[in-house]
Amino acid sequence: MLAFIACCCLLFVGCGSIPAPVSSRTPPPSQKINYHIVGQGDTLFAIAWRYELSVESLARANALSRPYNINIGQRLSLDMGRVRYASEKSTQRKALPVTTKKSRPPARAARAENRQPVVSKIKVYDLPKGQWHWQWPVKGVVSRHYDNNRTFKGLNVQSKPGRVVGAAAPGVVVYAGRGLRGYGQLLIIKHSETYLSAYAHNRRMYVSEGQRVKAGEKISEVGGDPENNGRLYFEIRKNGKPVDPIRLLPRL
User: Fold this and answer.
1) pTM over 0.85
2) Domain identity same for 82 and 158
3) Which of 40, 90, 99, 169 is such that its CA lies 20 to 30 A from the CA of 148?
């Protein structure tokens, strides 16, 4: 009898050491980013693109009015669920401190006091009117497609390095630069209040921000990787969110 009781005790102790099933554990906290600090060269379009937001919704969340001025060091809320409660104070914050007179000679301190943060303004663009249609930006073979799970948000089009890239639709260039990591030389064109298109990894760009372009107009050249394999990364966004370009482009 004593032996039976001892066995039962050992059995209960063993069960108590078994870890809880994975499904019953509390998941780790979300890694969602709730704000962005404006840096040198940032524009509202670039920030909105990075976080898959529309410029209009980002502006509303931060109580920004046209021309959407932003300052270096300014903290921008990315919480679209609190648009009504965005603080206007955040739009007026300046991060570059003024140097006091004690730290520098009078002449240099005066110059420091007059220093202003670099301000980025969004121009009011005259967008295309009337109907328009999408067209392929470059001749080539699609080597990677948009993923419905959004692990890949556009198309990779294999093409010859240096081949001309055309605008996929009429619009206005709202971004031209390499300030967004992973895109190389990037162009973003605004076609309407709903649609944007992006052209990444360009070798050379022929247009600048604020320039109007026609459908098919030459905007850049296809870039190449270290092995001289040319490719263009092409993306379309609707209300700030990536969509499958194949559903909008004509059949090849």
Assistant:
1) no
2) no
3) 169
Q: Is 243 helix (H, G, I), strand (E, B) or coil?
A: strand
Domain membership of residue 177 as a residue range: 141-247
Give me the amino acid identity at 71: N
- Residue 25 within any structural domain of the chain: no
In Å, what is the CA distance from 31 to each residue of 22, 28, 51?
20, 9, 13
Going by C-alpha positions, the residue among 25, 243, 42, 13 that lies closest to residue 134 is: 243
Rg, C-alpha atoms of the chain:
26
- Give the tens place of pLDDT for each residue, 17-58: 433 333 333 334 445 788 899 998 888 888 988 888 988 889
Q: Is 210 exposed, middle or buried (0-12, 13-18, 19+ CB in 10 A)?
A: exposed
Contacts of 234 (CB under 8 A, 6+ apart): 137, 138, 154, 155, 157, 168, 197, 198, 199, 200, 245
User: In this structure, is residue 79 part of a structural domain?
Assistant: yes
Residue 158 lies in a domain: yes
**What is the token pair recorded at 203?**
């070798």
Cβ-contact 76, 90 below 8 angstroms: yes
DSSP letter, residue 15: H
User: What are φ and ψ of residue 8, in 5° steps?
Assistant: -65, -40
CA neighbor of 234 nearest in space, from 203, 207, 198 = 198
CATH code (residue 156): 2.70.70.10
Positive or negative: CA dihedral 67, 81, 237, 71: positive
Taking CA atoms, 178 is separated from 50, 150, 204, in Å, by: 13, 23, 11
